[in-house]
Every structure is written in C-alpha cells, then in structure tokens.
Amino acid sequence: MTLIPLPAQPADTPWPTQAWPQGDLLTGPVADTLDAAFAPESLDPIGRTDALLLIQGGRIVYERYGEGLDETSTFPSWSKAKSITQALTGLLVGDGKVDIHAPADVPEWQTPDDPRGAITLDQLLRMSSGLAFVEEYSPGNPSDVIEMLFGKGQGDTAAYAADKPLIHAPGAVMSYASGTTNIVARALARSIDVFGPDFEAFMRRRLFAPLGMTSAAPKFDEAGTFIGSSYCFATARDFARFGLLYLRGGVWEDRPFLPAGWADYARTRTASKDDPADPYGAHWWLGLGGPGSFSANGYEGQYTVLVPDLDLILVRHGGTPLDLKDALRGWIGGVVEGLRG
Fold this sequence. Notes:
The protein has one domain (29-340): Beta-lactamase (3-Layer(aba) Sandwich), CATH 3.40.710.10. It has helices at 29-36, 81-94, 121-125, 144-150, 157-162, 178-192, 197-211, 236-247, 262-266, 325-340; strands spanning 48-56, 59-65, 74-75, 217-218, 232-235, 251-252, 255-256, 285-286, 294-298, 302-307, 312-319. α2 runs parallel beside α6. The strands form three sheets. Strands 2-1-11-10-9-8 form a six-stranded antiparallel beta sheet, with helices on both faces. It has a three-stranded antiparallel beta sheet with strand order 3-5-4. Strands 6-7 form a two-stranded antiparallel ribbon. It is α+β, with helices and mostly antiparallel strands. It contains ten helices and eleven strands.
C-alpha cells in the first residue's frame, strides 16, 4: 500500500502553538454548504451541528459555531480520544518504555496457559486483538461499551475489557471495540508507573502543552486509568491542533515530536480476513475524506478529518443520531470533494 505523502508546514505559515493563523476565508458553493449545516432544516439530513472548523495550508479558512457557542467552547471527543491514546503510545515508544510488537502488559493475561497473553499493543491499536466485545449503542440491546462506561465496568474500564475471552486468533480479524483502548491506556500508565492525576500531568507535559492544547480535559476512571476510548474534551481549535500534528507527519514547530513513521503507522490499513465496511489503521479511521484521508471519529458526529492532498483539516462537532450517521459522513465527503473542485 502506497501512502499519499503528508504535506509540510508552509514556510510562510506560523505553527498554531499560540494562535491559529488566518487564511483567505472560503466563499462560493462550499461555504454555502458549510453554512447550511447550521440551518434549522439541516437537523433532518445530518443532525445538529455545533462547530465547523476548516484548516487549509495551516490556516483557518472557515469557522462557525452554533447558537451560544464559540471558539472557547469545549466539545466531547467520544472516540476521537482513541487517536489521542495512539499519540501517547507513540511518545512512550519514543521513550523506549513500550514495544508495540511485544505482548501487552495486561495482568489478567499472565497465567502460562492464557492465549490472550500473546496479544500485542499493535493488535490492540489495530482493533484486531480477537477479544469478545459488543460495540452496541442502541438502547435496550446488549452492549459491552455501555456497560463499561456507565455500568459495572465504569470503575475499572481496562479490567472490564481485559476480562473478555478470545473469539478470534489475535491479529486475524479487525473488530472495533472501545474496551481495547482502555486496555492500552492502562498499559501505558503501567509502563511509567503513573496513574490518575499523575498520568494526566504526563499527558499535559508531553502532549497537550507542547501543541498549545490548553483546553484539553481528559477523564479517568476510579482505578486511575485514562478513559482513552471516549473522554477528552477540547475546543475545536485544539482538536485541529492535534490533527495538524498528524497531518505534518508527527512534526511540530519544525522538529520531530512523534517517532519517525508513527503518523504513517496510524494511517496504514489493518489487515483482516474479514473485509470491514470502513477501513481502519491504528486507532485512526481511513477514507472518510476520500483516498488517502484519515480521521478521528466519535459518537454522534464528532470528527477530525485529515486530507493530505488538500492539506486540509475538517473538525466537526454536534449531535447526529445514529440513523443519520451515514448521511453526515456523505456530507463530509461532499464538502471535501467540493474543495477538490
């Protein structure tokens, strides 16, 4: 698989560590399409839109918020937090604290005859651990993700997920499961022996502060594990900062920030004997903005979409019901195609 090259920061464009530089604002049909997302009639096709932010060439070219909201408002990440967990993994790989191709440090899997002991962080990041996990959001249906976040698993989300049995050989089948991310988050904390507020301090010192993500607010369970599957609130501008880190190949302020090749690892498709409808990389989704694009996706329509050939970041937050999910994804794809001309 050949990856589309990631664009470098333009020489005349400052990095947005302190403030986002402004570009020429979008006009014409694409701007009209974006504005229409805030019209009352848009609630039927794509649901409520709370924020839309487009960055092109490292500069803001479109920014609009719903009633009572602005650039200082914070929004839920939901599963966009998974991509933040992937970045934290990269930092600790760079520190030599974890090896993604070695068996993951999971206490529940350490008995000699436990086949789960062979599962690697790479397989967890690629959602191909083989663990049973029901990722169901419809009320009234059996759901491991709801039980983990709001039921008996909420006190120790990683332990809840790690207790699940194998239903596939590790690495054989890609099956999206939020529990695997919390297993990863706990393994990261164990690698440096810091939990709860101390792990949050690590996140701020090593990831958020250097990027200028001053609004980021991660959430932790009672066991002190970052709930990396679901919870990191931030402004749209800060989610765009995180996106720019990956669109620039893990470079920030013209210096390497993530290990070499880590962003490419994130956007390299996971192999699976099944053919999932939506291709997946390593805690990033692939293809939402057309060929070569990759994105952090969250429940109810939270998106950070990176489109390398357009040097584009699209951040969208709102409340889109599950039955409108495909319509919203199609709308985002249409916006990107409109920018391609």
